[in-house]
Amino acid sequence: MTAVHLFTALFALFVSGEAAFSWKSCAPAGSPIHVESIQVGPDPVEVPGDMVLSLSGTSSAPIGSSSLTISAKRKTFLLEIPIPCINHIGSCTYDDICGLPDKMIAEDWLGVAAGLGQQIKAMLNSSGVDACPIPAQTLTVSNAHIHIPSLPSALAVFAAGDYHINLNLVDNASHQTTLCIDIMVTIHEPCSGLSCLFG
Question: Signal peptide location in the record (predicted)?
C-alpha cells in the first residue's frame, strides 16, 4: 500500500475557523511519489461527520516498507500548538505502513482506530491496492466516503479549529523521503438545534 492512499484516513483524525482546505508538496526533487490533486468535501470538514475525498498521483518506483510521520498542529492567532501523540493517534510516527490498517483494526486505538482501519482497507481494495509493496503505477482515489468519528476525549480539546498537518513518508531501506505533503484544513462541529438555523 502507499501513503497516498493511507493518509486519507489518517488525515481524518486531525481534520471554528473558516480557512479553506489547501495542500502543497514538500517532497524533495525526484521523489518517487507525485501527488497531482487532492479534493476534500465538505470544507470545513465536519467532525463527527462524513468526508468525501478524491486524489490522484503517480509512483515511479515500487513502494514497500516505509515509516510515516504525522505532525499535526492547531493554528491560533499567535502560534501553532502541537497535538501530542496519544496511544498512536495525533502527531505520531508509524514504523511501517504496510501492516498499519490491520494493526489499527486489531488494537483499536482510543476506540476509533478499528472503524477507520476497516474503511482504509475497503478504500484500498476498491482502488486496486491489496498488497505491499506495490509496483509503480497511477494512484487514484475517487470520491472515497470516510466516516469521521467523534474525537476521543483525550484529543477533544483540539476539536474545532484550523490545523496544519504534515505527512512525511520515508523508505525504510533507503532512508529517502518518498512523499511529503503539507495540509491546511479546518474542522467544524456539526450544527445542532437553533445553530442550524442561524449558523
Answer: 1-19
Q: Are the CB atoms for 67 and 95 separated by under 8 Å?
A: yes
Predicted pLDDT of residue 19: 62
* Distance (Å) of CA 164 to CA 128, 182, 183, 187: 30, 7, 6, 11
For the chain, give the number of residues.
Answer: 199
Closest by Cα among 105, 96, 42 to 69: 96
CB atoms inside a 10 Å sphere around CB 150: 14
What is the predicted pLDDT for the residue at 95? 96
Query: In this model, does residue 124 exceed pLDDT 80?
Result: yes
Report how far apart, in Å, the C-alpha atoms of 186 and of each of 18, 41, 68, 149, 174 are.
6, 11, 22, 16, 35
Cβ atoms of 149 and 5 within 8 Å: the answer is no
Distances in Å between the Cα of 95 and the Cα atoms of 40, 62, 163 are 27, 18, 24
Domains and CATH numbers, the chain: 3-191 (2.70.220.10)
CB 139 within 8 A of CB 38: no
- Cell numbers placing 24: 502543497
Q: How crowded is the C-beta side of 161, counted as CA atoms within 13 Å?
A: 18
